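Batch manifest, entry 17 of 40.
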Amino acid sequence: MAPPLPQPDLQVTSLPSAAANQAAAPVQTPTRSRDPRLDFYRGIAMFIILTAHIPGNRWTGWIPARFGFSDATEIFVFCSGMASAIAFGGSYSRRGWLMGSARVGFRVWQVFWAHIGLFFLIAMMMAALDTYGGFEKNYVNSLNLGHFFKDTMPQLVGLFTLTYVPNYFDILPMYLVVLGLMPLLMAMEKISLWAVAATSIAIWLAANPYVIGLGPDGLSLPAEPWSDRKWFFNPFGWQLLFFTGFAFMKGWLPKPPVTKFLITAAICFVVFSAPFGAWKVFRWVEVWNQDLADTIRPVWSLTSEWRNKSDFGLLRFIHFLSLAYLGWVIAGDGGKRLIASGHSLGARIWAVLLKLITKVGQQSLAVFVFSMALARLIGFALDQTDRTITTTAIANLLGYGLIILVAFAAAWFKSQPWRAKR
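Output type: structure tokens
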């Protein structure tokens, strides 16, 4: 389950009036600024993602994914949509569709090579452990990379054409395909905002045809040539969340009102859906009331498609939006409740934590790529221990410290300090 992410404070009109205004007046480019809540919540997601990817990690029993339909993937994708509205939305408005799309294409190129580099780095690490380590565990097979090493040539072609996408290496391919859909959505904006919404929803429905009664198998991409397995993260489903975040930050969607009714509805959905979306909570219900658990159990099979992670089922979308709304309310206008005030020890500690978390959120791509490799190394280190509570805590906290260092290092390199200052 992803931590809640707020909607930006942008005063916008409704879809119909916004579309009408486009014909009457030039499009105004939103101010190019980062919502502080964007980086804070995305930073939280990076820590959760590292925790979730450490093999055999005790702490994964307490990440938000164990308590509801949605998880940290939602915040990564939603925040990426928001950040893309800042990074690319202005380019489309200032330079037009062609130059805006060229910039998106350059980002796709960067993400593609990040994916390739990450794969070869981790594959090399696992191969080195198996070749020179003499360990009982086969680390190559732990990531199901046996086919790549046994039959490298066709898998190498598949890797570069994205027809071979092993599990664990699937979120960046999803992200770059979703980015690749941005020129289409920006072209639809020239027609109307309704056309944008209709296009995104239509693509999502193609990946989730059960919603309109057309069966379980929808639009997807093949993940490996020797089986029928599809991409675990179907970009045609997940783009709906990406462009929802994009729409809020771009000003296509208005911020929701803060009302007791919406707050209560969001809390009720998050709380009462937990036994239907998380086995951990369901087990607690079993212990507390077996009859209630027996009533809930059949619902799991009935809602399997609606909470499906691969195609981004509708229940995941509603769950995340509920959390996002609550997070936005809690953070306050402009994230003012996140900012520490006063000079107490607690305020000073929170100010430091806020700075560290925000920095990680600002450098999310670099942190994500590093954390995926780091998680395997931490998992290997834990394999050499008895995985006690203490060693697990040390491993996780050390990992958090390392991704913070990477975030600051990435920011330092991006600032190009070697260039002469004017």
